[in-house]
Design brief:
Length: 305
């Protein structure tokens, strides 16, 4: 049997093969079937394993070894499907053990385990799980979302579970950039009339807090936008001008002279460097939690909650 024919046959069973030289010997490196099922198949084929690593299982380069392995694979009616099915319980055991080893909380372990079980149950059996491509995973996630309406949080948790399995259990690269995550809808701030904003401004003498109130309830920036706002994006002279903010086009903000005065005084007193609202450390942005907590306290004090 020619080498290319052997290579093609093994690939049909989900096993990839490469050769390399080591210590004067030529070795075959086999990858596939999650390496767990592959190791069992090599034992059945009476093939001696020279080395095991994250990169695969290495055996001596002898055509007879591969022919014996193919014979064992072909003796199974549905070799690849059976191998994946037979390894499911073991994969789940290894998955759970890895979470315990990394000291994940019980809640996280429970959530990840449930999502991984769902993945093992529903993923296609056309090829081994550890050989699924990014396109395969995207197709699976899309089908899952189509079959049943899952929340954005649930879908992201499912993707995080797959990332943990591929990176921490299999030691493979999980391309986060190419995985299609659902986008959360942008939360907008409900603008309030000038009378209500004046009431809020009266509840605090802190210029930074007053600036938050103006940009939030008069301009419409949400908490994330306030925390991420850079000094280059909001220029305050005689007029506040928004040059660029996330996905919005540049626009001028028409503020009353009172609001302009507050922003100008804020910039003069606080002298922000990189971010318009910085923490106690220069160049570091304020936290979302700090803004949320303060705005809530002011609204409660004004009786608007």
């Amino acid at each position: 049997m020619k080498h290319e024919s052997i290579k093609k046959k093994l690939l049909n069973f989900g096993i990839k093969i490469k050769s390399k030289e080591k210590d004067g010997n030529v070795l075959y490196r086999l990858r596939g079937l999650d390496n767990i099922g592959l190791e069992n198949l090599l034992a059945r084929a009476a093939v001696t394993i020279v080395e095991k690593s994250k990169k695969g299982i290495f055996i001596l380069k002898e055509e007879l070894n591969l022919i014996q392995l193919i014979s064992v694979l072909e003796s199974k009616k549905t070799p690849q499907k059976d191998a994946v099915k037979n390894d499911t319980e073991k994969m789940l055991k290894v998955f759970s053990g890895k979470m315990r080893h990394k000291a994940y909380s019980e809640r996280t372990q429970k959530n990840y385990k449930n999502h991984f079980q769902a993945f093992l149950k529903n993923v296609t059996n056309e090829k081994p799980i550890d050989m699924l491509s990014v396109d395969d995973l995207n197709d699976y996630i899309a089908k899952r979302a189509k079959q049943k309406k899952y929340s954005i949080g649930d879908t992201n948790m499912h993707i995080n579970t797959l990332r943990f399995y591929y990176e921490d259990v299999l030691g493979k690269k999980f391309d986060k950039v190419k995985i299609d995550r659902p986008k959360r809808p942008r939360k907008t701030v409900s603008l309030i009339d000038d009378k209500a904003l004046q009431l809020l401004l009266e509840q605090t003498q802190n210029l930074k807090h007053q600036a938050w109130l103006i940009l939030s309830y008069n301009v419409g920036l949400n908490v994330k936008e306030l925390a991420s706002l850079k000094t280059s994006e909001l220029q305050v002279n005689n007029k506040a001008t928004l040059n660029k903010l996330f996905f919005r086009s540049g626009s001028s903000i028409n503020l009353s002279k009172q609001y302009q005065k507050i922003l100008v005084k804020y910039v003069g007193d606080f002298s922000p460097t990189k971010y318009f609202f910085e923490s106690n450390i220069a160049g570091k942005p304020i936290t979302l939690r700090a803004i949320q907590k303060t705005l809530r306290q002011i609204k409660e004090k004004a009786g608007l909650l």
